[in-house]
Every structure is written in structure tokens, then in C-alpha cells.
């Protein structure tokens, strides 16, 4: 159709990780939590299905979730925006801050959705290369960006910048800095404590990783309440449904349960890192729920293809100037052991 916007027609679009409908697949490709959600989540969903809750609209701003999250995380409830997954809140941020023909900046390699968001908006997208050890240049070289995305921890590397480096970047750019913290619950620190004093910092969170709710679709933004008021004008009227709000509220309230899961995942991540290193991989130290590994002696794409044929799925990624590698989600100990057993036969 000739009426399709030229920038949409020209873009490749974002390609999500494979979701194969095969129960025998060991799925280590999209960084889901390998453990089930808190039992409180199932109770909350069952309760939401009773009475006439589904007949009525949900809370448009997720007030119950915001109050609960504010108490748990130590932030202002008026400084929280709810979203249908973190991709939704990234879209809301782009629509709010970036005009057509505007500029979005991001480090690279990182989350490839950022480019798609710029292309949809009809904006320019400028990247800043990470150094060889996954650090950022200082000062930041891009001036005048309407929005700067900084994934922390980063994907595919799993690396994280220190809090003082994030503050320095926020001061360097002056404009809005989005700290994309999809994996921050697995890291040594997070940016929520910076929001009150760094007024141009916007923190985004996902419930797909730490909270085992990738199938529910929920995320949120934490920022200065003045920014949240503007974002609320842009979001869909009811962008989160009754079930997602109930599940997310129950999940974030049960920190003890998820703290135990975090300890298991971090321990398995450590064992996976050691085992991959012993098998000849170069593994980047990770603060996420996945590891990024490469080899200099043999190509890694055939390894990916052979394991996929054996029903073990992870991500093969290649970046111009950075080579290629394998991003492997941290599964259960049994899943990781199966992966390693098959790798030992191949490598």
C-alpha cells in the first residue's frame, strides 16, 4: 500500500527471540527466569478471576501496584508509570520525548529494539561503541539527543557500569537518560536510588526476567513525578489489564521468595561461567541472568546450530566490529548441566 509511511516501509523491524512450540526444548535464548513465579502471584490471579473484576476496566494508572512498589523499592508512588512490559514503556518514552526527525542515542552493541523505536518515530539513531572491556567513553560524544538509552546491565554482554559512571553520563548529556534496567535485579546495584537527585534520569524495569512473568507482560518506569505526569498523557488509557496488575503487585510484594530465586540463579551463573571457561570459551563477567561467550579458535555459529538440532536453544549474535558470540540464559541446574554435557561432545 502506498499509504504506509516510508520510514516504516524501509525498516527491518525488531525480531524477537525464537519461541518454539516444543515442550522438549531446553529454552535458554530469551532470558526468562527458569523458576515459576511466587505462589502469591497465582493466588492474586485466581482472585482477579472472581466476581466481576474482568467485566470492569482496570485501574488506569495502577494505583495499587504503584503504592506497593513504592513501599518495597523506596520511591515516590507518583514517580511510577506502569506499562505492558518494558518495551511498552520504552515506546511511551520515545513518543513523549522524540519528535519526528529527532535524535536517539545509545551505546553499541546493546538492545536492538532501540533502533526500531527510532525508525518508527522517524528519528535518527546514533550509536556510541563500547570499549573492548564494555566501558563508555567520557565525556559522552553525542550532544543534543532527545533521548539516550543506556541498558545496565547490558545485553548481550551482561556487564554493568558503576553508579558514579551513570551519574557522570547523565550530567554529560543534560537531556533525558533512560537507564534500561531489565536485568538490574541480578546485578550488584541499581539506579532507583539515583532518581530522586538525578532529575534527568529515567529508570525502566521489566517483570519478564527477575519476577518470572514474561507471559504476563508488565513493566514500569521510575522517574521524577513531573516526568511521569507527561508520560501518563501519552500512554494508552488502560495499557495494563486486571490480571497483569494483580500478578505484578503480588510479585513485587514477595521479595523473600524472589531473593531466594536470585541466589539460585547467581550461583548457577557462576558454575556456568567456570564450566564454559574450562571448555575454551572466553566468558564476559555477567551481572545479568545470562552469559556472553566467544571463541577465537573455532567459529561459534556451528556450535549454536548443532545444539539447536539437539533441542537446546540459545542466541547466536554477531555485531560489526565486535565479532560474534553466544548469549546463554541461566537455566535450572539440570538444564545447564544438559547444555554443558552436549557442549563437551561438540567442543
TrEMBL record:
N6-(pyridoxal phosphate)lysine modification sites?
209
Which key words are in the record?
A: Amino-acid biosynthesis, Aminotransferase, Histidine biosynthesis, Pyridoxal phosphate, Transferase
Q: Which cofactor does the UniProt annotation name?
A: pyridoxal 5'-phosphate
Span of domain Aminotransferase class I/classII large: 24-342
Give the residue ranges for region: Disordered: 1-22
- Summarize the subunit comment: Homodimer.
Protein name stated in the entry: Histidinol-phosphate aminotransferase
Q: Which organism is it from?
A: Fimbriiglobus ruber
Amino acid at each position: 500500500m502506498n499509504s504506509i509511511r516510508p520510514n516504516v516501509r524501509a525498516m527491518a523491524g525488531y525480531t524477537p527471540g525464537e519461541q518454539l512450540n516444543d515442550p522438549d526444548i531446553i529454552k535458554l535464548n530469551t532470558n526468562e527466569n527458569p523458576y515459576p513465579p511466587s505462589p502469591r502471584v497465582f493466588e492474586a490471579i485466581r482472585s482477579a478471576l472472581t466476581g466481576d473484576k474482568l467485566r470492569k476496566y482496570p485501574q488506569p494508572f495502577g494505583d495499587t501496584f504503584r503504592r506497593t512498589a513504592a513501599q518495597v523499592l523506596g520511591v515516590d508512588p507518583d514517580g511510577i508509570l506502569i506499562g505492558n512490559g518494558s518495551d511498552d514503556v520504552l515506546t511511551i518514552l520515545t513518543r513523549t520525548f522524540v519528535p519526528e526527525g529527532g535524535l536517539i542515542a545509545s551505546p553499541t552493541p546493546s538492545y536492538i529494539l532501540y533502533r526500531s523505536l527510532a525508525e518508527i518515530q522517524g528519528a535518527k539513531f546514533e550509536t556510541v561503541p563500547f570499549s573492548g572491556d564494555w566501558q563508555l567513553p567520557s565525556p559522552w560524544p553525542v550532544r543534543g539527543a532527545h533521548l539516550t538509552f543506556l541498558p545496565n546491565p547490558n545485553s548481550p554482554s551482561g556487564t554493568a557500569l558503576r553508579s558514579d559512571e551513570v551519574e557522570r553520563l547523565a550530567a554529560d548529556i543534560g537531556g533525558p537518560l533512560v537507564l534500561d534496567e531489565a536485568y538490574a535485579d541480578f546485578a550488584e546495584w541499581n539506579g532507583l536510588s539515583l532518581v530522586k537527585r538525578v532529575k534527568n534520569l529515567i529508570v525502566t524495569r521489566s517483570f519478564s526476567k527477575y519476577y518470572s512473568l514474561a507471559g504476563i507482560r508488565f513493566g514500569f518506569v521510575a522517574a521524577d513525578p513531573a516526568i511521569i505526569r507527561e508520560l501518563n498523557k501519552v500512554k494508552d488509557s488502560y495499557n495494563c489489564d486486571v490480571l497483569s496488575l494483580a500478578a505484578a503487585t503480588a510479585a513485587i510484594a514477595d521479595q523473600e521468595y524472589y531473593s531466594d530465586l536470585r541466589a539460585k540463579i547467581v550461583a548457577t551463573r557462576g558454575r556456568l561461567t567456570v564450566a564454559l571457561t574450562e571448555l575454551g570459551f572466553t566468558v564476559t563477567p555477567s551481572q545479568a541472568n545470562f552469559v556472553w561467550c566467544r571463541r577465537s579458535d573455532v567459529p561459534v555459529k556451528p556450535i549454536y546450530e548443532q545444539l539447536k538440532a539437539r533441542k537446546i536453544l540459545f542466541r547466536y549474535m554477531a555485531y560489526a566490529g565486535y565479532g560474534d558470540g553466544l548469549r546463554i540464559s541461566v537455566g535450572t541446574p539440570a538444564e545447564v548441566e544438559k547444555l554443558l554435557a552436549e557442549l563437551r561432545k561438540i567442543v
